[in-house]
Amino acid sequence: MPERNIEFGKYGARGIKGHEAVARQLDALATFIATPITTRRGLLARLHYLTRTEHARATAREAGLTVTDRTLRAWLEERRSPSKRNLEKIESAYRTVRRQNVSRYLLLRLTREGRGTRVEFHPLNQSQVPRPRQRAVEYRTLNVRHWDRVVRAWAAGDDAALDEAWVNDVVVDLGSQWGEYEFVTAIGFAA
Amino acid sequence: MTDFDAIDALLAEARQEVPLPPAEERRALREELNVSRAQLAKVLDVSASTVGGWESGREPSGQVREKYAYFLEGARTKLAAADPADPVDSVDGVAHAEEETGLDDVDVLSEPQPCVLCGRPARHQVEGFPQHLDSADCAPGDPAQPVPPAPEAAPTGPAASPARGVKVVPAGRRVQPADTPDLIGSAVAAALDQHSGDVEAATAALVKRAIPDAMALLDDSRKGGRYDVVAHPWLPDILRKQSARGADQIWEARPKWTRPELPPGEHEVTALDVNGAYLSALKTHLPIGQLEHSTGGDHDRRRAGVHLITPSDWDHDAYLPNPLGSRDEPGPLWVTEPTLRLLLRLAGPKYGLCDPPEIHESWTSGATENLLEKFRIALKDARDRAIAEDDEVTLEYVKAMYSKFVSTMGESNYNRELYRADWMHLIRSQAFVNLWWKAHRAYDEGLTVVRAMGTDELHVAGDWRAVFAEGRGVTEVKVKDVYTVGTVPSTG
Fold first, then answer.
1. Are the Cβ atoms of A188 and B231 closer than 8 angstroms?
2. What is the tens place of the pLDDT at every residue in B304-314?
3. From the CA of B220, how many Å to the nearest CA of chain A?
4. The CATH number of domain B14-102 is 1.10.260.40
5. Is B234–A185 a contact, with Cβ atoms under 8 angstroms apart?
6. How many CA atoms lie within 13 A of B438 on its CB side?
7. Residue B484 Cα to chain centre, angstroms
8. CA distance B220 to A173
């Protein structure tokens, strides 16, 4: 199966797109603030992260947190609390800024001075597929050396670019059977 | 210098093997008695081809060697009794060799010439090289004489190669010594070198890098292995921590048990400490791949993982710890493979200590006990060597390696190379199960088990030295504390 799947899950296979699994793993490695934004502690931690320096404020504004400095100050001093819509904005801005900040270092660790990182492909779940339709899809590993496009797309939050980068830079290296690994249960790697 | 002592001991032991007649004579003895190879093989409990191998130059070892020597000795005596002029016992070496050596290229020398192997006079020559045919004669007794290389391998006796053989691998048309890097030894040497012999600084530096080093050792130990170490599988929610500092749902069955009451009288209780409990626990049935869900009450011995069970009652709390540890609430719980196997074994006909647990669901994968075996052996060997040489640096390093390996192989940020929370639980449970079996053994041998707690602590009263060996090896125990409980009954 050398191509992308057309009707994934028609016979009951379950899995997520490879790039989603990668984004998940990269997010896990980036370690966001664990406390949810709905609590005071979580909100303040995010706001502090976004307003610590002038540079951080600028990136936060670029990432969509378009509120005045006065409002930010009011939130930080807890004179006002952000509306639900603004909470979402803060959260998304925080994740974007955090990804951008972390990506430089993550890239260094993943590339490991050119040695690359071993990536595990855990195949899709076929337990709900009728027996005659099941195929032997094995667990595979691959050493990935070029991470820059993947990490850049992840940091920019660009799903289509991440998918493109993941499939074209990494998955095709699995050989002619790469289409079996377009959807996976999990992608594992360390950094 | 203890290692030289060990070599000496090995040498002394190696020479104690029963001498056998040369290979060609063995065959003659058997054939003259009209005993077939198969008959002899059956008596010795080996295969006929093995006997054939012994008759063409291979050397049996161990117990079977003694049996074989007994047979040959008996055959020789019997033949000598039947025919007093039997060439086997003949003093005339020339006639003896003519008849007995079945090889074409062996000639008998009229004048003894120096053997090419040992330099002492020999009566035979093989392809023109004078040498002894019997390895027992051919002992390199005179070290002053240079030993030229023998063109053909003369039968080498067990005494000729007392040291451990060199492992070789083919390289092109030649062989070369197998590449077995001593990662632990070289790391210790490098650290000591870097800190110019400062033991404390070197130990601190080694302990600091124990986790990546353990991972490198693990990678090295899996070379050529059948199974890959799957480091980042998808894990079911029961194995995920519920919060940053929270625990997951697996019950590791850590023992924490104190005997409710002791028999009257005064008891001297010894607190024993199991050496390297987690190191030994690395040998356990570990699931190789991703865990798969299954329901139904069956237990598949070829798989391992975690199981949701309802345990049966434990009625022996008065003298034996509960294999499930000190559980506060009743009802179903997730236990690991070692605990379940322990419960099933105790429910079996041999022990019959409890009813089998009811298995509701399982997350398992195909299992092997050998996944970490080479890793464990490497660490254990390094530890044994360090103890023998009194090398505290290596000892600390090895200890940090295995303990940190186990404690960080789950969702730890200190070791991101391996995310196997399931293995972590299984290995810990195995350590607890091993401790439980020690407690059971003490109980079985008539000791009074007083406490079983933590990973490696066992308090017993009675003559424990008859049951457990004392020492620092992984199969031995060491004494942590000795205390007295109870009062001397007043004699009125």
1. yes
2. 999 999 999 99
3. 15
4. yes
5. yes
6. 31
7. 37
8. 25
